[in-house]
Amino acid sequence: MTAYDMDNIFAKILRGEMPANKVYEDDEVLAFLDIMPRGDGHTLVIPKTPARNLMDIEPDALATLIKGVQHVARGVKQAMGAEGITIQQFNEAAGGQVVFHIHFHIIPRWEGVRMRPPASEMAEPDVLAAHAEKISAVLNAG
Ligand code: 5GP
Question: For the chain, how many structural domains are there in total?
Fold first, then answer.
């Protein structure tokens, strides 16, 4: 199995060495917006423990992570007024994985609106900030 790379971008975000539009955080997971959103409000959820992908994460850590994904997906759907949510998760380069710290994509969807292609366009920083504020307000209410 390939070793975990401590210098991947998401490890740097976790260590506070790279900025991110964070929307939710607890002891186990961190959620932040994707910089190249495939849909408005596209959010990534990652575990705080190092794991490369679905193949090497401990089952208990995966169970905790998917609970976090459900919690964040509910909040994202409400905050963005989405009609549906697409969840994606890629493993290894051949499987479409680009960043080698396991993550789930939460992509808000609306009838008749196509997902943008992966890695197609960087979102404007002020647009990301506005979406992050909306989602964070729902996920961190009360
Ligand atoms: P995957 O590894 O599942 O193919 O996707 C990695 C995702 O991370 C892509 O959707 C890409 O847009 C996103 N991404 C790549 N670099 C950064 C970054 O520095 N910050 C954030 N927030 N997202 C990133």
Answer: 1
Task: With respect to residue 141, please indicate whether it lies within any of the assigned structural domains.
Answer: no
Q: How far apart, in whole angstroms, are the C-alpha atoms of residue 72 and residue 50?
A: 20
- Give the structural domain span for 24: 9-135
Q: Which helix (H) or strand (E) holds 85?
A: strand 84-88
Please say if 103 is a catalytic residue: yes
**At residue 2, does pLDDT exceed 90?**
no
pLDDT digits 0-9 by tens, 65-108: 999 999 999 999 999 999 999 999 999 999 999 999 999 999 99
| Ligand 1 residue neighbourhood (C-beta within 6 Å) | 9, 20, 32-36, 90, 96-99, 103, 118-119
Question: CATH number of the domain that 64 lies in?
Answer: 3.30.428.10
